Amino acid sequence: PSSFSAAFQEHLRHLRLLDFPCRLGSWVGVGRAQLWDMAWSCHCLSSLPLQGKSCHNARRRPRAEPAGLEEAVPPGEESPEVLLELLRDQHSPWALPPDCSPQDQLLREVAVLAPELLHGSRIFQVFKSLRMVDKGVEELDEGLLQFQQLEELILSANYISRVTSAHLPRTLKVLELCFNTVGDLQDLCAQPPPGLQHLGLGHNRLCDFSQEKHLTVDFWPNLVSLDLSFNSLTDLLGLVSQLATLPNLRILLLQGNPLTLIPTYRGFLVDSLPKLFILDDTRIWPDERLQFHSLAKQPELARSEARVVVSIGEMKGLPDPEAFQQPEVGPEGPAITYSYRVTYEF
């Protein structure tokens, strides 16, 4: 699917909320004896390869109900406790795959304990956190606006190149978009969620936005954490002039950008952003601030150029020149010349 809504519906089908043991499906109301017979048959089929038993033997095995079940629930119903046990047991044929999120498990348990909350459009009100990672999403459509209680949205590892802020719930506090193809912030900054505290844009295609002031307090008054790592940012001075307007910024990730090669990169940022607490996953201590004190007043040191020193300690797998070359004999004795060429691409 290319749209968020299509990917979300496919995700719900993957969770099988309409199937046993969730209580949204047509199986609800089936007699308890029939239900347990159906459940046991599914269990035998799913566990057959692991136990190495024939289908004939599995069918002849006596079907035992949990102790006290017949006393705990009325006739024709299955207890929520038994259904939850089938969902939570990692060896159960109805257990979720290991890569599913806690939110997925919670949603299935809600389908057992309070299925009325998931009927129709009510299901969107259950979500406060939604994780849609590697689901093939290309477009954030208006379907997102149905999540009126959503506070955390994780859309990593998709194919999103454009983020239309008008389609984002206004309740968002966390928006994670790492490993996508976002190239600019113009659409995102049109109507950004006012209470957003974390914006994750690492591993995208962002270039310098010195002309468009998209990272200022005008758009992100409550931003605490910002991830811009592994993009193509080169303008350190232009970036700092915008980030300095964010009053609540405490965590900043810029590693993997060309501007981090500037020799005074870290010191200039530390001194320019006195409220910053963590830079590139490393805490800023008071002695480091003292070390770089007044560096922000010398912008000429933050030039857009870098020097890279490469030291080669050992090289393996090179051909031995003696195998195909005879040393030349001269007046000063034999001499062998070795020539190597190493190329680096940035």
TrEMBL record:
Domain of life, source organism: Eukaryota
Gene Ontology CC terms: cytoplasm
UniProt key word Transmembrane helix: no
Positions of region (Disordered): 54-75
Residues in the signal sequence: none
Keyword annotations from UniProtKB, A to Z: Leucine-rich repeat, Repeat
Protein name: LRC43 protein
Originating organism: Grantiella picta
Gene name of the encoded protein: Lrrc43
